[in-house]
Amino acid sequence: MEKVAIAGIGQTPVSENWDKSLKELAGDAAFAALQDAGSEEVDAIFVGNMLSATSAGQAHLGTMLADWIDARGVEAVKVESACSSGGSALRLGIMAVASGEFESVLVVGAEKMTEVKGSEITAALATAADADWEVSQGVSFVALNALLMRRYMYEYGWKHDDFAPFSVNAHENALHNPFARFHQRVTLDAYRKAPMICSPINLMDASPTCDGAAAVLLTRSERAHKPGRPTVEILASAVATDTLAIHDRKNPTWLRAAELSTQKAYAQAGIQPQDVDVFEAHDAFSIMAVLSLEACGFAARGQGPRLGLDGEIGIQGRIPIATRGGLKGRGHPVGATGIYQVVEAAQQLRGECGPTQVDGARIAMTQNIGGSGATIVTHILGIA
Prior knowledge:
There is one protein chain. The protein is α/β, with parallel strands linked by helices. The protein folds into 2 domains: 4-117 and 210-224, Thiolase/Chalcone synthase (Peroxisomal Thiolase, Chain A, domain 1, 3-Layer(aba) Sandwich); 122-208 and 230-383, Peroxisomal Thiolase, Chain A, domain 1. The chain contains 14 helices and 11 strands. The chain has helices at residues 22-37, 52-55, 61-68, 85-98, 118-125, 141-156, 164-174, 188-193, 221-224, 256-269, 286-295, 304-309, 326-329, 337-350; strands spanning 4-11, 44-48, 75-79, 104-111, 196-198, 201-202, 212-220, 232-241, 278-280, 363-370, 375-383. Strands 3-2-4-7-1-8-11-10-9 form a 9-stranded mixed β-sheet, sandwiched between helices. Strands 5-6 form a two-stranded antiparallel ribbon. α4 packs across α14 (337-350). It starts with a strand and ends with a strand.
């Protein structure tokens, strides 16, 4: 198998992009990645997306993008695995290069969510859950996470305030990311006063709906070198699944798919949790950040909130997360999120993050979650 590296990265600002179509957003990110790589060579395209047919009236995104960026003729496919669509698309791109099938693969995550009614997006997001046993009961995606958070608080004795550091940290880091959706600090008082969405999840516990696209150009490691900057190599790529419905899991408050995919990734990279310098967690809800940290081995079971309370998730902490704002501060255009995470991890390893740069970062991990933990994709990046 060939070693795979990231030759170029690109992203668009996460916002309510009224003046950009999904096609334009995806194209902007793709062109940015190609420019960053200093190459126009594309042998295949994988596009991660969840909601385009509903929210943008457009399916067939692989061919759409190939046509738009003048790469007609190449293999081009849309990849969907709910909110982990970006991470899943990246994994397919990595395998395509590693196998030797292609020299250069463009992977783009794109989503446009803000031009349809909120109720329609809520219904569309719910398709990531079990239609027969969860959605049919009228439970929204936020409600499923609220049930998880309520159960976790009951099991381990945490209070709602104990989750505040995750929102505070994400927004503090987003201040320094020009591509982030939010550039406002969040205080403990603001967290406490935030409107309740679905108890115990309030507005500060949840990531926003938004539009955005991010892209990476993958190639063999020896072809990715560019003078003057480190080469970011893919050290591991792994995916695991769990039951679609939360109630079918032996322990609803344990992300088994995160545990499995992380164990595979650690083994591929030949590292342990303590070797990870940066972790871009899937903090769509504060409870998901907590559960991910535990399943990945950064905290003991039931003790995830302690990392936030002790300052361990900050830029100077033991395991920095949401270093560019995460899903909460940067925003969560669902199908694009997994690629945004990898772009930001690559920026950390290149030393391009300014005030939120993690000193000496050499190994970064990303984790992209589909549904309420049903599909979890883990990637580990390092400096070649």
